[in-house]
User: What shape does this take?
Amino acid sequence: MNPRISRVSVLRSFLVAAVVGGSASMAQSAIVQATAFGDQMAGGTLTVTWVPGPGGPLLTTSAIIQVGGVDSAIALLPDPFGNPGPGAIFRMTGDTFIGDWFLENLADAFIVRAEFDLSTSISVFDNDLIADTPGSGLGRLGVVYQPIPSTAPMEIASGEFNLWGGAKNAGDLYTHQFIDWAPPTLAGGGFGPQQVYVWLDDTDVIPAPGALALLGLAGLSAGARRRRRA
Assistant: This one.
């Protein structure tokens, strides 16, 4: 027997056993984790809708949520008028259930909507006040406005939408969330320049897809075949 072929066969058998065993182990432990941190929202997207003033047209800017440090998320929203520097900054540090979430308006416009899309991250929003999905713990229905230290007004509506498609979802986990504010009027009001909105929220961490392990096995197997033909 060709010793090279023998070594490749043994390696492949080992990899298959490891992945199958690992997949079985993941299946046993693939439950939602209630304790989640800001940095685990990285990869998601935040979109902000603006109006220049009373009766003005709607403008939107979006940014990818990034890791901003230990347990921290940050997103720098472009200015709605194309001016240099961010138009708004989102940040969240620590446990997403007990820590404050911040959205700061730095533009010369008013924010009327913030929409989070976490479908491309490992986190989802938990909107249930009871622990339905196994491992999810308690959640928050919409957002909880923090009048201190907020300088922006309270939202007029908020909520989660787009159910997470995981088989374990009992109907309380969502990939998207919106927050709406009243538009400004001639009498004033609105989430205006140099104001910050602070709230409480909640996200959970979802199981990593087992397909990634299988994809890695396929790549290793292909590499082994190429080495054997060589």
Summary: The chain has a mean pLDDT of 83. The first strand starts at residue 45 and ends at 51.
